[in-house]
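Record format v2
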Amino acid sequence: MSKMHLLDAGIRKKWGSSSPHFCWFKSSFSEKTTWYNYCNNHVIKNCQFPPVKVPGEQKAMIFVGGVISLDFPREQLKAFYRTMYTIRSFEERCNELFLAGKIPGFVHLYIGEEAIATGVCATLRKDDFITSTHRGHGHTIAKGADLKKMAAEIFGKSTGYCRGKGGSMHIADFSIGMLGANGVVGGGYNLAVGAALAAKMRKTGQVAVCFFGDGASNRGTFHEAMNMAAAFKLPAIFVCENNQYASTTPYRTTTSVENIADRAVGYGVPGIVVDGNDVFAVYEAAKAAVERARAGGGPSLIEAKTYRIKGHFVGDPELYRSREEVRERFETDDPLKNFRKQVLAANQLTKGELEEIEEQVQEELNAAIAFAEESPFPEPEELFQDLYVEGWGEACGK
Amino acid sequence: MSKMHLLDAGIRKKWGSSSPHFCWFKSSFSEKTTWYNYCNNHVIKNCQFPPVKVPGEQKAMIFVGGVISLDFPREQLKAFYRTMYTIRSFEERCNELFLAGKIPGFVHLYIGEEAIATGVCATLRKDDFITSTHRGHGHTIAKGADLKKMAAEIFGKSTGYCRGKGGSMHIADFSIGMLGANGVVGGGYNLAVGAALAAKMRKTGQVAVCFFGDGASNRGTFHEAMNMAAAFKLPAIFVCENNQYASTTPYRTTTSVENIADRAVGYGVPGIVVDGNDVFAVYEAAKAAVERARAGGGPSLIEAKTYRIKGHFVGDPELYRSREEVRERFETDDPLKNFRKQVLAANQLTKGELEEIEEQVQEELNAAIAFAEESPFPEPEELFQDLYVEGWGEACGK
Amino acid sequence: MREITFAEATMEAMAEEMERDERVFIMGEDIARQGGIFGQFKGLPQKFGFERVIDTPISETAIVGACVGAALAGMRPVADMHFVDFITVAMDEVVNQMAKIRYMFGGQCTVPVVLRAPDGAARSAAAQHSQCLESWFVHVPGLKVVIPSNPADAKGLLKSAIRSDDPVLYFEHKDLFRMKGPVPEGEFLVPIGKAKVVREGTDVTIVSYSATLHKALKAAEALAHEGIQAEVIDLRSIVPLDKETLFASVKKTGYLVIAHESTKNGGVGSEVAAVVAEEIIEYLDGPIKRVGAKFVPIPFSPALEPLMLPQVEDIIAAVKESL
Amino acid sequence: MREITFAEATMEAMAEEMERDERVFIMGEDIARQGGIFGQFKGLPQKFGFERVIDTPISETAIVGACVGAALAGMRPVADMHFVDFITVAMDEVVNQMAKIRYMFGGQCTVPVVLRAPDGAARSAAAQHSQCLESWFVHVPGLKVVIPSNPADAKGLLKSAIRSDDPVLYFEHKDLFRMKGPVPEGEFLVPIGKAKVVREGTDVTIVSYSATLHKALKAAEALAHEGIQAEVIDLRSIVPLDKETLFASVKKTGYLVIAHESTKNGGVGSEVAAVVAEEIIEYLDGPIKRVGAKFVPIPFSPALEPLMLPQVEDIIAAVKESL
Ligand SMILES: Cc1ncc(C[n+]2csc(CCOP(=O)(O)OP(=O)(O)O)c2C)c(N)n1
Ligand SMILES: Cc1ncc(C[n+]2csc(CCOP(=O)(O)OP(=O)(O)O)c2C)c(N)n1
Ligand SMILES: [Mg+2]
Ligand SMILES: [Mg+2]
C-alpha cells in the first residue's frame, strides 16, 4: 500500500493531476500477470480488463510505470530498445539534415515520445493497421518500416515510399498495414475506423490503431470516429499522444478536460491514462486494449501522457514556452533514459548489450541516409503517374 | 427514501436505464427550493448545482419529474400550458394542412416534445439566444414568435418571417434571439457557441441555448462546440431532445452511450438527464444551467428524454417501429396530459382555466392560418433580394 | 426491354455487384431499416444482411472516412450521402483523403470507394436540401465524377463505379428516382468518361446531364418545330470529360449551349465553355451560352423555386441568343 | 510611401479596424501566442488582449461556426483558417450557414464575417498544405471572395472585408507574406469587386491574381522584348467579378489568357473564359488560354512541385498559342 501512495504522489507530481485516479499494475517480477486495480486507496486484486466498477470517481485509469514487471523475454527488451533508439536517432538525423537544408518541406520530430509508438506497435501483428499523423516517423519505424525508403521519401527521392510525392508528412507502407501519415490533424481517425470495420467484416482478427495528438482530440472527427467504432463494436484502438502542446497552445488552454481518456465515458468504452514515457506501461495498456479488440470487445481509448521535447516543427522559434521547462522535462523524464535505468537496475540487459544495439542502429541509419542522398529525384514524367489506376492524366488535361 | 426508490424504479421502467443514477429533486410544496442529491440510495440535502461529488457512478444526473414542486405563480403555470398547447395545436394544424397539400416542402412535427422547448424557454430572457433544428416550430413558439409570420412562412408567403424563402425548416426571428431553424443536423451547435461568445465578450449577461436531437449528438460539431464552449467557459446551454429516433434509426443502434448527458464528462461540464415530458423538471434543469451560465460558470449539457410521437416528417411510412409502441408511449406519457393531471390534482389550476386557454389559442391559430392563406406569394423580383446587403445580384450575373 | 425505375436500376446494380464481389458493401443514414429516403435501397438488407447494408450514425465524416479506410484495408465500399448538401460535412474526407491518397502515397494503394449523393431541387426542400454541387469536384484531381440521367445509365454507371479502382462520385437527381425506362438485365456497364449523343442535330449543340437533360430534350423538340435542329449531348461523366464527343458535335454545329441545374457561375458549364473556347474556338459561329440556376440560394417558396431553376424556356432562349 | 510587408499590411488593417470598432475580433489556431504561422498577427494580442485575439482548439467547424454565430449576435468576427486546405473541414459552415443565412432568413440579419485563409504552394508543403481553393466559392451565392496580390491591396481589401456586412472570404498566398511594397498609412480601402489594370498593353489581355500575378507580369515583360504588349489585369475580387474592366481590356486586345495557381480544370480561369465566350466572344481573335496547376495533387518532391505549378514560361507559351 505504501508503494501505491508513492505512485499516486508521483503521478500527481508528474502530470499535475489533481483528482484521484484509478491505477492498474502488475506485480513485479512474478511469472503470472496479476492485475491490481487501485482507487482511492482501495486495491482490488485480480480484476479484469476493463476493470470492475468500484466506488470512486471513475474517469479514467492509470497504468503506472515503474511497477510494471520487467518479466519480458530478453529479445523483447532488446527490441524495445532497438525501436526506441532507432526512432530517437532517426529524428536527430532529420533535425540535422533539415537544418543543413537537405530536407524540403516541414519536419515534425517525435523525440521524447518514442515509448508510445514502440510500446503500442510491439503488441501488433504485421497485418494490423495503424494510422498516423504529421508527426509520423516514430509510428512508421515502430510498425517495421524500411529506413531506406523512409529516408528517401523525406528527401523527396523517387526511391522513397511514395516515390517522393509524399514527403515527411505523408509516409505510408501498405505492406505492413501502415495506412499513412496525415497532414490533416484528425484525418486518421475515420480511416482507422474503416480499417477496423473491414477487419470485422472479413473476420481477420486484425485491429486498427489510430495515433493522434492532444490537439487533434478536439477535432469533430474524434467524436464521429469514437462513436461509430463504439456503436459498431469495431476492433479499433485510439491512442492519444498527449504531449502537452498543440503546436503553440498549451494543452489546457484549448482542451476542456483534464484527461483526454475521460472522453471515453461519452462512448461507453474503456478510457486509460498511461505514462507515455514508460514503454512497459504503454505496452501493457495497449496489449489489454488490443486483446479486447481482437476478442470482439470493441474499441478503447488510451491516453499516453508525454512531452514534446523539440519544437512543433524543425525551425519552430518556440515563443510559447521556456527553455527551462523543456530542459527539466527531458532531464527528468526521457523515455530512453527511463528504459535504460530500469533494465540496468533489474539486471535484465547489460550496458554492453545496449551499446551493441546502438552501434547497429547507427550503421543502419548511415546506410539509409546514404541511400537517400544517392537516390535520384523523380523524373518529370512521374508527375502524372499514380493519380488514377487507369492513368488518364491526358483525358483530364494535364 | 421509499419515494426515492419508487422514482428510481420509475426511471428505469420509463427509460430502460439500467445503471444507478443521480437524481435531484425539490421538496414538494415548500416555499424554499431545497435541492437533494440522490445516488445509490444516499440522499444528500442542500447540495449545490452542479452537485458535490459523492461516491457512486457519476455519469449524469437526473431531475425527476413528479416530485418537482408546483409552487410556481399561477401565471407561470398558465404560461406553461399556453405554450405547450399552442405548440401541440400548431403542429396538428400543420399536419392537416400538409396532408391537404397546402404546405410545400418537408414538415417535421414537435408533437410529444412540447415540454422541452416550453420548460427551457421559460427560463430565458427575450434577448437570450436559441438555435434550433429541422424540428423547430416548438422552439420558435416557445421563444415567443408571432404565429402569423410563422404560418405564413410555412406556406411560402411573402408575409412570412423569411419572406417565403425559408419555409418550415428555416424559420428565424432575430428580434427575439431565435437564430434560426437549421436544415443541417448539428448545424446549430457552433452558431450557439458564437452567440455565447458574443454575449461573453460584450458582457451582456445573455445566454445561448442550442437545441439538438439524439441523432445530432453524433455529429462532430457537437464535440467541437462542447469543447470550445467549455474551454472558453461560455454561457451556452446544450439541450438534447432525445426522442429515441434519428429519422428511422432507434437511438442505441447508432449511438454508443446510454445517456447523451454522459458525454458531459468529456468536457468537464455538468451533464443532466431530465424527464423531457415533465415541464417542471425541464424548467428546473434549465434554470440551474442558465443561472450557472449567466454567473460565468460555463456551459451545461442537458438531455431531455422524450419520444417522437409522429413520423420523422409528415408522410413518413414509419416502417421502423410499431403502431403499438407509439400508442403506448402517447397514452402513458403525453407531456400535456402529464401537466394537466399534475396541476389539477394539486388544485393549482382549474379545468375551466385550462379550457379558456385552449379556446384562446385556437382562435389565435385560426387567425394565423387565415393570415397565411390569404397572404400573397412573393413577387418574382423578390428572388434576387436579400442575398447581399449591397444587393448585387446584377454584378454576379443573375 | 423491361422497364424499371431509376431507383430500381440503382438497386439492381448494387445487388448484382454485391452478389458478384463480397467486398462490396454500402453504408449511410437511413438506408437499411428505411430502404433509403427515396426507396433506392428497399429490399437490399433483406438480401445481404444488415452487416453489408449499414445504417450509420449521423456522422458524415465517419461515413466517408471509414469507407476510405475500409477501401485501404481491402474492401470496396459504397457510401450514401443522404443529400449531396451534406457532402460539405465530409469535404475534407473527400478532397484531402479520398482524392489524394493514391497519388500522395505514390500509387501504393487503390481507393475503390463510390460516394452516392442524391442531389437537385425537388418540391421546395429549400436552400440546404436542394443543391447540385458536382462542379466543385471538377477542380479536385483524383476523383471520377458521374451523373446519370436515366435508369439504364444509372445502372450501368453505378456498376462501373463500383468496379473502378479509383474513387467515384455518383450524383443522382432526386427527381429521377421515379423515372421509368428500359434497363438491360444482368451485366450492363456504361463506361466512365463517355458522353452520349442522345439526339442528333445540325444547328446547335446542347450539352446537359442529369435531370436537366430532359429539359434540354424538350427544348430541342420545341426548337425543331421552329426548324432548329439541336444536337443534344448527355455528358454522363463530368470527370473525365469526353472532349471527343463534345468537340465532334460543336465542330459540326458551330454553336454551343450548356444547361445544368447547378448555379451557372462556376458550374460545369463554365468548364465546358472554357475547354471549347480554348481548344476549338475557331469552329464557333456564335457565343457559348450557359444555362444554370440563378445566383441565389434555393428559395423555399413554390412561387420562387421554379424561377431560380433553369427551365425549358431558358434553354430555348439561350439557343436563340447563341444563333 | 513607406514600404511594409504584406503580413504587416494585414496586421495594420486588423489593428486599425479593431481600434475603430470594438465588435471586431479574430480567432484561429496559433495566432495569439505564436503571432500566426506566417507572423501575420505578431503584436496584435499585446495591443488588444487575448480576448480579442483568440487561440482556438483545432476545431475548424467551431471556428467558422462560432464566427457566424457571433456575427448574428452583433459582432464582426474574423476567422483565420491556418491553411486554406482545412476550409474543407468547415465547408458546411461556410457554404450552408455563412453564405445562405441572410438569404434563407429573408434578409432579417447580416453576416459580417471575414474568413482569412492562407493558400498556395510554398517549398514542398505537399498535397494537403499547398492548395488554392478559391474557385469553389465562385459557385456559392452569398459570399464575396477577394484575393490580394500585394501589400497595399492586402490592407485595403482586408479593411473593406471587415467593414462589409456580407461574409467575405479573404485568400492570402503564403509566398506573399514577406513581399514588401508601398502601403498608404491609415484609412485606405480597396473596393471589393474592382479589378485593376496593373500593366497596360494592346496585344493580349492576361488576367491573373494573387502570387501568380507576379509571374504574369514577368511574362508580360519577357513578351514585351519580343514586341508583344500584354495588358495585365489583377482581378483582386473573384466574387463579384469585375466584368467591366475585364471586357474593356479584351475588347481592346482581342486575346485572352488567364493564369492562376489553382488547378486549371474548374478554376477561376474557366469562369472568366466562359463569361467572355458568352458575352463578348465577337471581340476575340483567338482561343482563350488558361494556365493553371496540372491535374494532380501537389507533389512533395522539389523535383516535381515546380512542374506541377504554373510558371512564367507557361504563361508566355499560352500567350503565344493564343495569338
Ligand atoms: C485540420 C487541421 N487543422 C490544423 C492543422 C495545422 N496543424 C498541424 S499540426 C497542429 C498541432 C497538432 O497538435 P497535436 O494534435 O497535439 O499533435 P502534436 O503536433 O502535438 O503531435 C496543427 C494545428 C492541420 N494540419 N490540420
Ligand atoms: C448533416 C445532416 N445529415 C443528415 C441529415 C438528414 N436528416 C435530417 S433529420 C435527421 C434525423 C435527425 O435526428 P435527431 O437529431 O435525433 O432529431 P429528430 O429528428 O429526432 O428531432 C437526418 C438524418 C441532415 N439534415 N443533416
Ligand atoms: Mg500535442
Ligand atoms: Mg431524435
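The first helix of chain D runs from residue 6 to 20.
Residues B 213-215, 243, 245-246 surround magnesium ion (ligand 4) (CB under 6 Å).
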